[in-house]
Amino acid sequence: MTDTTAPAVPDSPARSPGVSARLDDNDLPWPLRPWIMAAICAAAGLAFHLLIDHHYDDTLADWRSALATAVAVAAVVFVLGVELRRWHWALGFALGWGAILGLIAWQTAAYNIQGNPVEWPFWSGMLAVLVATPLFQTRRDVAPDWRFWKLWQMPYARLHSHAWTDAVIGAASLAFVGITFLLTVLIGQMFKLIGINLIFDLLNDEWFGWMLAGAAFGGAVGLLRERDKLVATLQRLVMIVLAVLAPVLAVALVLFLLSLAGTGLQKLWDSGFSTAAVMMAAAAFAVLLANAVIGNGSDDRATSPALRWAAPVLVVAVLPLAGIAYYSMHLRVIQYGWTPERIWGVIAAVIALAYGIAGVWAVVKGRRDFDDWLRPMQQKLAIGLALLALFLALPILDFGAISARDQLARLKSGATPAEKFDWAAMAFDFGPSGRAALKELERSPIKARADAAKAALTAKNRWDLTGPDGPTLLKPFAERLRVVPAERALPPEALERVSGSYMCSRAKACVAVWLDDKRIGVLGQNEPGDSLNFDFVTQNDAGQWVQGDWAKASPAKKPPVDLSKARIEVETVQQRRLSVDGVPESGTFE
C-alpha cells in the first residue's frame, strides 16, 4: 500500500504537449534550472575555496573544515534533489544534511591531533545522505504531506528509478566537469599563443578552478534534470549493460565457492590480500548486478533465461561471501585486537550478512519470482541503512575509546609485545582515549614502555613513530637546537616552524643558521652519522614563517639585447652556501 500521489499541477501554456522532456507530468518545465544550478554551485565552489584556502604548513581550523563541508554537501544535495514542486522541501533537506555533515566533519577533525575531517564517520555520513536522497525524492513525489515516518510505504519502482537516475546524473555531471576543464585548458592555450594569458592565468588560481568545477557540475545536473526522459533511457542502457555481466559474475562466484569447499579458507589468509575487502567488493557487485536484472518491478525484469537464473544465484551468493568477510574480520580481531577500521569492517560485514539473509529468504519464498519478495525488503534495508549510517557517523559511540581499551589490555597482558605495539595508532588514531592511555603508560615502571609512550606523546606526526627503531624518546627541542650565531634567538613563530619541520621534528641534532633577516637555513640529523636534511624557513610577505625559500627574489626580466653589438665580459660571481666541516650541504642560495 502506498500513500496517495500528490495532485498534479494543472496544465499551463508553459507546458504544452511535446515541449516538456520531463518524466513526471507533475513537474513543470524549468528552462532556467541549468543557469540557476550553475550559479548556486559556482558560488558554493568559491565559498568552499575561501574556507579551505590556507598555507600547507598550517593546520586548517576545525570550524573552517566544518563550514566548507556543510557548504559543499548542501549545494550538491540541493541541485540533485530540487524540483519546482515542493522546492522548499528540497531546500530544508539540503540545509539539514549540510548542517549534519558539517558537524560530523567538525567533530572528526577535532578528534585526533592534526585530524582529518574525511575519516570513517564522515564517509558513514556521506553514505547516509546518498541513501536518504532517493528516499526523500520519492517521498516528495507521492506524499500528500510531510509525514516522513511512512517511508516504508513508498512505491518501490519510483524509489529504484530515483536511485539509478541520481547515480547516472551524478556520474555524467562529474564527467562533464572533466571535459569542461580540458576545453578551458585548450582555449587558454590558444589565446596564450597570441599573447593573451588571461584564461591560462585564471586556471592557475584555485578559486577559479573551484568556481568552474561548481558551475560545470551544477549546469550539467540542471540540463540532465530537464531532460530526464533522456536520462531514463540512458539509465536503462546502463542497467542493460550491467545485466549482461550478471551471468559472468554468477558463474565465477559459483566456481569460487565450490573451489573453497575443496581448498579450504587457509589459502585466502595466505594470499596477502585483505580477504574481507575482496569478499565485500564481490558481494557489492553481486547486489548491483542482481538489481540491474530485476529492474524496477515485475514488468521491468529481464526476460532472458540466462539473466533470470543469474539474478537469484547472485543474491544467494551474497550470504557466503559476507560470512567469509565476517569470519576474516573475526580472526583479525582475535589476532590483533580492535581498531576503529576493524570495527567499521565488522559493521559492514554484518550489513552484508543482513542483505544476504534477506536475499536467501526471498529466493526460498519466491523461487523464480524472488524479486517480488526482495524489492520491499530492499526498501526497508535502505531505510535502515540510512538510519544506521547516520547514527554511526554521530559522536555517540567512541570507536577510539573501545580500541584504546582493548589495545592497552593486550599490551599489559603480553598478548601484544611492546615492540609490535602500534604506538602511532594510539597517539594519532584513537582520539583523546588513546592519548589518555599513553599518559598512563608514561608512568609505567617498565622503562622501555614508558619511554615509547613519552615519544609517542611528543611526536608531531605519526611517521615519526614508524621507523625501524620504533618510538624514540628525544630530549626537549631546546636542548637539541643550536642557533648560528648563538647570540641571535629565533622568533617564537620561526622556532615553532623549525621544530615541526621534517628536518628537525625527530632529529637528535638541529642547527638553525641565520642567512639574513628573513631567511634561516635549517639542518637536521636523526642519528649521528646519518645524512643531513636541509631546507629553508623564511618569512613571507604576510609576515608568516614558512618552510621553503619564499624570500628568494624572482629573477629580473632581462632587457632585449643585440648579440652582434653586445659587450661580452667574464665576471667573477661570489655565492653563498652552507657547509658542515667543510663539506657543502646546501646549494648556492645567492
Write up this protein.
- By secondary structure, this protein is mainly α.
- The protein has 4 domains: 201 residues, no CATH class; 163 residues, no CATH class; 67 residues, no CATH class; 108 residues, no CATH class.
- Helices cover 59% and strands 6% of the residues.
- The strands form 2 sheets. A 5-stranded mixed sheet has the order 1-2-3-4-5. It has a two-stranded antiparallel ribbon with strand order 6-7.
- The longest helix has 38 residues.
- It is globular.
Give me some keywords for this one.
6% strand, mainly alpha, 590 residues, five-stranded mixed sheet, 4 domains
Outline the secondary-structure elements.
Layout: H1 33-52, H2 62-81, H3 87-109, H4 120-142, H5 156-193, H6 198-203, H7 206-225, H8 228-263, H9 266-270, H10 275-294, H11 305-336, H12 340-366, H13 370-393, H14 399-413, H15 423-428, H16 431-442, H17 447-458, H18 477-480, E1 481-484, H19 492-499, E2 509-516, E3 519-525, E4 533-539, E5 545-547, E6 579-580, E7 583-584
Parallel strand pairs: 1-2
Antiparallel strand pairs: 2-3, 3-4, 4-5, 6-7
Helix pairs in contact: 1-2, 1-7, 2-3, 3-4, 4-5, 4-13, 5-7, 5-8, 8-10, 8-11, 10-11, 10-12, 11-12, 12-13, 14-16, 16-17
